Amino acid sequence: xxxxxxxxxxxxxxxxxxxxxxxxxxxxxxxxxxxxxxxxxxxxxxxxxxxxxxxxxxxxxxxxxxxxxxxxxxxxxxxxxxxxxxxxxxxxxxxxxxxxxxxxxxxxxxxxxxxxxxxxxxxxxxxxxxxxxxxxxxxxxxxxxxxxxxxxxxxxxxxxxxxxxxxxxxxxxxxxxxxxxxxxxxxxxxxxxxxxxxxxxxxxxxxxxxxxxxxxxxxxxxxxxxxxxxxxxxxxxxxxxxxxxxxxxxxxxxxxxxxxxxxxxxxxxxxxxxxxxxxxxxxxxxxxxxxxxxxxxxxxxxx
Length: 303
Known about the structure:
The chain is α/β, with parallel strands linked by helices. Helix content is 26%, strand content 26%. The chain folds into two domains: 2-197, Formyl transferase, N-terminal domain (Rossmann fold, 3-Layer(aba) Sandwich), CATH 3.40.50.170; 203-291, Methionyl-tRNA Fmet Formyltransferase, Chain A, domain 2 (Roll), CATH 3.10.25.10. It has helices at 13-21, 47-55, 69-77, 94-97, 120-127, 162-183, 214-223, 285-291; strands spanning 2-7, 25-30, 35-37, 42-44, 59-60, 82-86, 104-108, 116-117, 131-138, 148-155, 197-198, 230-234, 237-247, 262-264, 269-277, 283-284.
């Protein structure tokens, strides 16, 4: 099939590679433009852009689509059977959605209508969902509201972390999009009930609120690793919480209860197992405490 691919982050790359390996004619890749990165703020292409360069595919990165007549004409001139979309980062206007013969087909990292929006993997882990998955859907003008073509679930284990679920779902998306294109299954409307929204996250969303339950904060350390990171403060130091376990204890939320970094929460207590100071490497709690005193009664998150 004659395809365009529209995606930007690491999540998109397995699907792009799978489509090319399956012999589809990839006429163009659309992705976010290169952006400044690192200490030197040099321009860096996104993962899908780098993959397209490696595969020898033409790359387009328009700053906007709505009202961009020249880019729309170029897109139409590709004479596409379909466009495959995976975390592109721009909303596709209706005239773009209608240009390919089979429309635009989205790889979404949730079991729709659960977790529409920009951060479905984070949201599923944070909420304590037992499973998540991939939905292949035909896009419409709404936000992840289009009819579904295929769905497949993946369990979320009790210790599942963002990184491992991201990679498993990205691989599953690559497999399911091949099936959807080959089988052309009938489109099924999404149910009216059960819709939830996973908004785009910022760095500030990672700040731990110790008045939350120990269970919720433990899930936050897994749902936000590696980004945006679950963090708290100890005086002027920022501490990234990498791993924790539910423990026993009571006290004012954020209070250190013992010499093993057990912290009181709004309901129960949480023992920090692995953490990281800003500018330092990750360490287990015992090694951290040998070089950094945290007396019982210290309150975290007060600055």
